[in-house]
Amino acid sequence: MSFIVFNGELSKRDTITVDIEDRGYQFGDGIYEVVRVYNGCLFTWKEHVERLYASAEKIRMTIPYTMEEMKVMMDKLIEKNQLIEGTIYLQLTRGIAPRNHAFPGSDVQAVLVAYTRLGERPVKLMEEGVDALIIEDKRWLHCDIKSLNLLGNVLAHQEALDAGCYEAILHRDGVITEGSHTNVSIVSDGTVYTHPANNLILNGISRRVMLKACESQSIPFKEEAFTVDQLMRADEVFITSTTLEITPVRRINGQPAGVEGQYPVIRQLQESFTAAIETECGSLR
Ligand code: PDD
């Protein structure tokens, strides 16, 4: 994993340094994506790269590469690092300029960094589930942007970890939005509910794969917000993300979420998720 992409070039990781006046470093002024690699193949790349460009537009940043050029760079990186199973992290910051809240001039180019990380599917977590803690969502109102500004997410996640949980489930005025680094869904009376893709959540790519799975499996679903109360009374609760795919939530605030170990709809959705991976990236053995 010793190569990275830096400004359009493959470079040895230890030859690259971050400029202290990089706006990502000083303001969190940038955007990112985490893309899963299975069998050396970038799963749902199109969706990720389109979301990256959408995030760039929302923060008025110009990406100095085409989507095709980005794909070529990421494929080269995977090949160079011989990555079979893991993730690519890629980020773009608004560039390097003397510290000033105002955007720099158009001569300042966005800085692209991408690196790979080894990682297997979290099979045990997907099988057994994780525990979660409900926390107030204190983040800003542009959670649809995959921004580098993750302090609200970091604080919520750490609060959950400190309470012995794996994930924070966030709510605004009693309405569940999402997790600190995942989307949250419930199953109630056979219907899957998940928060609508508006400014209060990140429209997760795994969330979208999951909703497509509902469609193909004829599982009723509603992109409709649900309350803390509905969450606590749900038959099944699960989180979705690039790295966790579809993972059951076992306990919330120490209370069982649904019936522990009984995840019939989740199991169906997990199977479809695996099938979607295999269709795009080949057999997972
Ligand atoms: N997290 N919501 C938030 C706040 C997230 O940070 C993420 C992803 C998701 C799920 O999105 P997706 O299915 O596209 O991964 C939802 C990534 C993995 C991270 O920051 O590491």
Give the CATH superfamily of the largest domain. Answer: D-amino Acid Aminotransferase, subunit A, domain 2
Count all strands and give the number: 15
**Percent of residues in beta strands?**
25-35%
Q: Total number of helical segments?
A: 8
Q: Mean pLDDT, nearest integer?
A: 97
Number of domains: 2
Level-1 CATH class name of the largest domain:
Alpha Beta
Q: Low-confidence runs (pLDDT<50, min 5 residues)?
A: none
**Structural category:** alpha+beta
Bound molecules: N-(5'-phosphopyridoxyl)-D-alanine
How is the main sheet built?
9 strands, mixed
Based on the coordinates given, report the CATH architecture of the largest domain: Alpha-Beta Barrel
Helices and strands, in N-to-C order?
Answer: EEHEEHHEEHEHEEEEHEHEEEH
Characterize the overall form.
globular
Q: If you compute it from the alpha carbons, what radius of gyration comes out, rounded to the nearest whole angstrom?
A: 19 Å
What is CATH's topology name of the largest domain? D-amino Acid Aminotransferase, Chain A, domain 2
What does this protein structure show overall?
This protein is α+β, with helices and mostly antiparallel strands. The protein folds into two domains: 3-118, D-amino Acid Aminotransferase, Chain A, domain 1 (2-Layer Sandwich), CATH 3.30.470.10; 123-281, D-amino Acid Aminotransferase, subunit A, domain 2 (D-amino Acid Aminotransferase, Chain A, domain 2, Alpha-Beta Barrel), CATH 3.20.10. Helix content is 31%, strand content 29%. The strands form two sheets. Strands 7, 8, 9, 10, 11, 12, 13, 14 and 15 form a nine-stranded mixed sheet that branches. Strands 2-1-6-5-3-4 form a six-stranded antiparallel sheet. The two termini are 24 Å apart. Bound molecules: N-(5'-phosphopyridoxyl)-D-alanine. N-(5'-phosphopyridoxyl)-D-alanine (PDD) is lined by residues 34, 153, 178, 181-183, 202, 204-207, 240-243.
